[in-house]
Amino acid sequence: MESQVLTPHVYWAQRHRELYLRVELSDVQNPAISITENVLHFKAQGHGAKGDNVYEFHLEFLELVKPEPIYKLTQRQVNITVQKKVSQWWERLTKQEKRPLFLAPDFDRWLDESDAEMELRAKEEERLNKLRLESEGSPETLANLRKGYLFMYNLVQFLGFSWIFVNLTVRFCILGKESFYDTFHTVADMMYFCQMLAVVETINAAIGVTSSPLLPSLIQLLGRNFILFIVIGTMEEMQNKAVVFFVFYLWSIGEIFRYPFYMLTCVDMDWKVVTWLRYTVWIPIYPLGCLAEAVSVIQSIPIFNETGRFSFTLPYPVKIKVRFSFFLQIYLIMIFLGLYINFRHLYKQRRRRYGQKKKKVT
């Protein structure tokens, strides 16, 4: 005898965008669920109120829905989700005003319209927050990106200054004092690159990417670039002088010990030898570097006077010629002022790192 076709109990609830139907059937086999002409068709073998049987029902929706129902089988029921074509609140589920006998509200999921609106707003806010976090990145991701960016910057600078240091050292060992006079033409391109890239270091300090104070970084950047691009770079007569070797060599010595320390800091490592060199090598190197810069400025003054480069005449009625050497003389004073500021800053750093601990009073 053929199994009798019966109607299962169906419970429904809604949100502004979706309909939820719960079909009370267990051990469902071969469910046939589809939507055609805005009518939901359900047919399945399962165990319901009338025992093991074939159960089916048809529901014509009040408004238009999307014809792709989503269902999930559990051991005790079938859950069906239907998307509304237009996000709105329905007065009822079916087109016919009289509710079918097998259909009832699902009070486990039931919300009135105002509660559903609050839930919708909460979901939308959660979605926007998720998008914002994805676009901004999690704090851990941002920290890792920051460390990776700083590590790569310090690595590039270390390689650049190491190339300059090794090049000058090898040339001096082979050529002796003769290597002094073509230093600029040998390593100028790499020095230009490193010093232009050093702008990033000052920007990092300015925007808080690093905790370094801005003033010492800015003083070093402007001072070195003034020497490199103006005093040496614009005057061919200066490019062949021995002082260029000492300026470049002293700059590179300081940096090949500084940047490895920063690289290790990015990966949370502390090598005592590297740390000690970073906080100690500057003591003789920094004053000697400033002295070499001052010598280069002094040697450039007569050349700028002779060529008249960057000199200018004030407009009428003053008509006084202002020589660029006047600014170079002022800059000589600023070199030693900058030396004081940066030396004091570096000394404080070293004292914080290696300062003597106060003895406990017994």
TrEMBL record:
<keyword id="KW-0597">Phosphoprotein</keyword>
<keyword id="KW-0444">Lipid biosynthesis</keyword>
<keyword id="KW-0276">Fatty acid metabolism</keyword>
<dbReference type="InterPro" id="IPR007482">
    <property type="entry name" value="Tyr_Pase-like_PTPLA"/>
</dbReference>
<protein>
    <recommendedName>
        <fullName>Very-long-chain (3R)-3-hydroxyacyl-CoA dehydratase</fullName>
        <ecNumber>4.2.1.134</ecNumber>
    </recommendedName>
</protein>
<dbReference type="GO" id="GO:0042761">
    <property type="term" value="P:very long-chain fatty acid biosynthetic process"/>
</dbReference>
<keyword id="KW-0456">Lyase</keyword>
<dbReference type="GO" id="GO:0030497">
    <property type="term" value="P:fatty acid elongation"/>
</dbReference>
<keyword id="KW-0175">Coiled coil</keyword>
<feature type="transmembrane region" description="Helical">
    <location>
        <begin position="324"/>
        <end position="343"/>
    </location>
</feature>
<keyword id="KW-0275">Fatty acid biosynthesis</keyword>
<dbReference type="GO" id="GO:0005789">
    <property type="term" value="C:endoplasmic reticulum membrane"/>
</dbReference>
<comment type="function">
    <text>Catalyzes the third of the four reactions of the long-chain fatty acids elongation cycle. This endoplasmic reticulum-bound enzymatic process, allows the addition of two carbons to the chain of long- and very long-chain fatty acids/VLCFAs per cycle. This enzyme catalyzes the dehydration of the 3-hydroxyacyl-CoA intermediate into trans-2,3-enoyl-CoA, within each cycle of fatty acid elongation. Thereby, it participates to the production of VLCFAs of different chain lengths that are involved in multiple biological processes as precursors of membrane lipids and lipid mediators.</text>
</comment>
<dbReference type="GO" id="GO:0007264">
    <property type="term" value="P:small GTPase-mediated signal transduction"/>
</dbReference>
<keyword id="KW-0812">Transmembrane</keyword>
<comment type="pathway">
    <text>Lipid metabolism; fatty acid biosynthesis.</text>
</comment>
<dbReference type="InterPro" id="IPR007052">
    <property type="entry name" value="CS_dom"/>
</dbReference>
<dbReference type="GO" id="GO:0102158">
    <property type="term" value="F:very-long-chain (3R)-3-hydroxyacyl-CoA dehydratase activity"/>
</dbReference>
<dbReference type="InterPro" id="IPR008978">
    <property type="entry name" value="HSP20-like_chaperone"/>
</dbReference>
<dbReference type="GO" id="GO:0030148">
    <property type="term" value="P:sphingolipid biosynthetic process"/>
</dbReference>
<dbReference type="Pfam" id="PF04387">
    <property type="entry name" value="PTPLA"/>
</dbReference>
<keyword id="KW-0256">Endoplasmic reticulum</keyword>
<keyword id="KW-1133">Transmembrane helix</keyword>
<feature type="transmembrane region" description="Helical">
    <location>
        <begin position="281"/>
        <end position="304"/>
    </location>
</feature>
<feature type="domain" description="CS">
    <location>
        <begin position="5"/>
        <end position="94"/>
    </location>
</feature>
<keyword id="KW-0443">Lipid metabolism</keyword>
<feature type="transmembrane region" description="Helical">
    <location>
        <begin position="150"/>
        <end position="170"/>
    </location>
</feature>
<comment type="similarity">
    <text>Belongs to the very long-chain fatty acids dehydratase HACD family.</text>
</comment>
<keyword id="KW-0472">Membrane</keyword>
<feature type="transmembrane region" description="Helical">
    <location>
        <begin position="241"/>
        <end position="261"/>
    </location>
</feature>
